[in-house]
Amino acid sequence: MSHRRYLPLNHKWRKDKNSFDGTVEMRLPPKSFSGKDILSQVQDLEGIILNYSLSNIQLVEKCFGPQRHDHVFGHGGGVRPKDVTGPIASKQELHHENVTLREKMNNMESEFKAFKELMLKNLPPNVQVTASTSNTIEG
């Protein structure tokens, strides 16, 4: 299969016979499936136990049988374990997590600042901190 198939229809390489296999690529790219499309296709399957250590292709083959090179199911996205293991976090949950992480970062920055001030206060008298950058200590 020519991978030029995945290029836009008006791409110059689709018509370039000399640089490739001597053919002009006229086929349309195969349909891509979103995670929701695949979930709707596999929701009725029973008896399949998902293994998180499976690669994408192994997961697809476990659900849909062996794949051939001329017809690969879900090419360009495929099934990821997170697509079939549960709901995706809502915007509200993601926002809450973002706010929480931002607060933790602010706390860490203030602790670092306090630690830095304590270290600078306890430096021996013969050590000088240059004014140009507070990260450079000379002694």
TrEMBL record:
Parts forming coiled coils: 91-118
Question: What are the alphabetically sorted keywords of the record?
Answer: Coiled coil
What Pfam families does UniProt report for this protein, alphabetically? Answer: Transposase_21
Q: Which InterPro entries does its entry note?
A: Transposase_21 (IPR004242)
Q: Which PANTHER family match?
A: OS12G0282400 PROTEIN-RELATED (PTHR33499), TRANSPOSASE-ASSOCIATED DOMAIN-CONTAINING PROTEIN (PTHR33499:SF40)
Which named protein is this? Answer: Uncharacterized protein
